[in-house]
Amino acid sequence: MMEVAKENMRQPAHLLIFPAPLQGHINAMLPLADALSFAGSLRVTFLNTDHNHRLLSFFSPSQYSRFSLRPNLRFLSIPDGLSDDKPRSAYQLTELFHSLRTHSVDSFRALLLAGGNKDRDGWPPVTCIIVDGLMPYFMDEAQALGIPVLAFRTISASSLWVYLQIPQMIEAGELPFPADADLDEHIKSVPAMEGFLRRRDLPSMCRKATKADDKELQLFTNFAASSTRSKGLIFNTSDSLEAPILSQIDSIFPTTYAVGPLHALVESITSSSVSASLLAEDRSALNWLDAQPYRSVVYVSFGSLARLTHEEFLEFWHGFVNSGHRFLWVVRPDLVAEGTAAVEMAGLEERVRLVAWAPQEAVLRHRAVGCFITHSGWNSTLESAAAGVPMVCWPWAWDQLVNSRLVGEVWKVGLDMKDVCKREMVESMVRAAMEGEKAEELRRKATDLAVEIRRSVGEGGDARLDFERLLRDILSLSLCASIA
């Protein structure tokens, strides 16, 4: 179908960006919208679900105020199909994405058929779309209307490469493997990762699979492959971080763009940062950090989706306390699966601070932060790498296990305590990252990586050049759509 394209004759370029309705995905894709709209040569619509649009406008009003001054960037939203009081946490993701597929596609199509003008404000029709790779059904809908689509994968290139190689691992007999298998055995059938990828580093669904046709295994494989149907593939990464893997992906996707870390790219281009929080940020955490000595604080955050058992929470707590170091811990209200995370704070007030949510990028850049205990989500990993802060990784699920291996074994800017959260291990890891020669070595390597990241997003750097190529290609695709 070409209804939209036929109406677009010689219209100005109008890009629509649609992230999956999750905190981490919005955090990755909003900076891209910021950078592209700042270039000034196209109009950009950032599309959210109604639910997340309300949260962003309430908890990140300063961003809406800043973006409102840019006439070529706007925000629209469509329903996600769930009631307002329905939870949208990690344990409801299947229901959320099913609802998007069955209820939101019609709203998305109607928006495009209306020319992208939900409020009929005179904007030109949409001429190009960047859609989250987790939602290929929206990509298919747009392409059926004759609108060119680029896919954005918010995971690391290494993680996507592992997903793409699942059929090869099955064919080689490396998947599935027995529950009692040696998890330290290396995987040999994933090109460019043979030297460091182990069974324990594979995404969580690979570990759980007991047969080759496991439904979750096939689902993630199909999602990974679906991006090949797009006009190009965008990554929040750069050659400085994942050059060998990007080279492998280029053999499958002839048009790829490695434009990250996007939060650093935006700062390099616009001299400002982007905050897109769906929760209330406790900025008093920064005031507390101001009173702490240089590199004395362990910052702890397991992201927006991870859940700990009460036992795991207490093991981390005792490990942190027993290390003797100061720590700032983001304890979301829903972090502990069994309920409230209650601990005894008596005598610890001077060196312990618990907050419900924090402005993470600002925290990681603070002079008082000496290391970062992280779930290894890709955004968190990139923010820490760009800030030059060593990491201690405890990956919770999915692709995070691949990322933690990059941190510990490939970049060597952190420690990977995958599969273990006993208090003795936590204490040992904190001490190793904060004290002595090992800590100094991690800091040197983390600083070197941060310098390389700044080079890549700066003028003439590989990420900046890929961003400029992406902008040119969006304009070219838009022109083709407008005259089709």
From TrEMBL:
Ribonucleoprotein as UniProt keyword: no
Family note: Belongs to the UDP-glycosyltransferase family.
Superkingdom in the source lineage: Eukaryota
MF term (GO), any: quercetin 3-O-glucosyltransferase activity
Keywords recorded for this protein, A-Z: Glycosyltransferase, Transferase
Enzyme Commission code(s) on record: 2.4.1.-
Name of protein: Glycosyltransferase
Species this chain originates from: Dendrobium nobile (Orchid)
